UniProtKB/TrEMBL annotation:
Role: Catalyzes the NADPH-dependent reduction of ketopantoate into pantoic acid.
Residue runs in coiled coils: none
Pathway as given in its UniProt record: Cofactor biosynthesis; (R)-pantothenate biosynthesis; (R)-pantoate from 3-methyl-2-oxobutanoate: step 2/2
Pfam family, one: ApbA_C
Keyword Oxidoreductase: yes
Keyword check for Acetylation: no
Domain Ketopantoate reductase N-terminal: 4-134
Limits of the Ketopantoate reductase C-terminal domain: 162-282
Protein name, UniProt field: 2-dehydropantoate 2-reductase
EC number: 1.1.1.169
Superkingdom of the source species: Bacteria
Amino acid sequence: MTQIAIIGPGAVGSTIAKDLQEKYNNVHLLGRSNKQLNYHSYETPDQTSTLQVTAINDFSKVVDILIIAVKIPQLQNVLSQINHLIGSHTTIILAQNGYGQLGHIKHPNVYQAVVYISGQKQENHITHFQDHTLIMDNNSRTQQLFEIAQNTKLSIELTDQIEEKIWYKLLVNSGINTITALTQQPVKVMEKPNMKQLCNQLLNEGISIAKAEGIVLEPSTVSDIMDIYESYPPEMGTSMYYDMLAQRPTEIDGIQGFLYQCARKHQLHTPILDTVYTLLLAQQPEE
Ligand code: NAP
């Protein structure tokens, strides 16, 4: 029987585990320590399920599929602890926002998943808001997870255009995460004077970086993303906003930092990105 482990008992990892555990009992949710989590959907707060988390170090099986769903600043620490879970046959899926982290995982079968699962972790409580989708490259290994996820809530979408999908999500995150984190205000800050214009300019710089990297996005990408922001509830925060408020390290290395490095590589003129990246970097907590 295929053994599956998910590392990261947060909003994304818990949702993946819960969706698969409803059909399979060989799906293990791993974290820093042994504990139980409460999990519920936003629409049904009185219907709480319990999820069991096993400490990575207490779990001794080599798994067939390992899904890593931690935030970017947490990845290196996780990678230093997983050798005992991985064999040459293991498929590793990185379910994370941003770009550029895949190269840190020294294994032949590593794939990025573009995450469309929305939720929030507060201590030992997970609230799932919406979506259950991971988008991945279409190949024989990811097809295995696609098959496993059939008839579960988890939706695996396989694509021949994974680079475009990753970049699209990267740009979605780059705009709203930046604005909410820097202003330390939720999405309604977009209603403030000139904020949409600033966000639009930032997204357009992102488009020029994607183009320089050979990524072809639809001409309507910027307006599509601005429409997505319009659809967000005004009181919604972003993960970078919450991380900034809590003075935790944010995911800027894989989002604004990645874009900034690409822009330098191609010697592009990106004044808005350069400014916001510098301001965000200055607000990272000291290590
Ligand atoms: P999260 O709720 O903060 O969960 C991360 C989990 O990883 C936490 O439970 C944390 O454990 C665990 N972790 C950290 N270091 C660990 C370690 N060394 N060993 C084991 N477990 C460790 O994060 P998330 O929201 O699920 O985000 C995961 C990724 O998905 C991020 O890249 C995020 O940007 C992306 N994403 C999130 C959403 C969303 O709505 N949440 C949407 C799309 C994409 P502790 O509980 O002990 O701290």
